[in-house]
Amino acid sequence: MSANLIIDSITRHVQLSADEQQHFLSLLKPKTYKRKQFVLQDGQVCKYSTFVTSGCLRGFTVDQNGFEHVLNFAPVGWWIADMYSLLTQKPGILNIEALEDTEVLLLSKADQEKLYHEIPKFERFFRIITENSLVSFQQRLIDNLSLTAEERYHNFCRRYPTLIYTLPKKQIASYIGVTPEFFSRMQHKMLLKDKK
């Protein structure tokens, strides 16, 4: 099942032969994380690209006042990594934590580099998902600078439709950059508006 999921995610962008699929799958390391367990912590070097096959991960930073800032979520079928740390192999600033019991497939940086030489199509695949990620982060930055909290929430719903009803409200509030109290008031106001 998890093999099909990751192969499907790749074949949306590049076509692989049966041998190429098998070779790729042989490089992946399955791992399970319990709820609240860290995949990666601030200060560690990111050695893997992580693909989620069940559950959900979140990427976040903690500021000097102890406030968490959620950068992204990785539900089923999504990749996640601290890109800065993965590419430079220097300690990163991202924490990646399981929001529930989560199963993943890990691809090490070394194996990813090896894949680029052995099956050049993978260089194209990872370039596409890196470009998509860059576009998404740029859009999110612009949204945070120019949109209201309500508009940012609507964008969150479009980006993560499977998470709207499953994530704790506190996590969604952190992602859109508001306090949980403000988020509750905003949702209440939106409900009243919808009823009119």
From TrEMBL:
SUPFAM superfamilies: cAMP-binding domain-like. Coiled coil: none annotated. Residues 31-116 form the Cyclic nucleotide-binding domain. This is Crp/Fnr family transcriptional regulator.
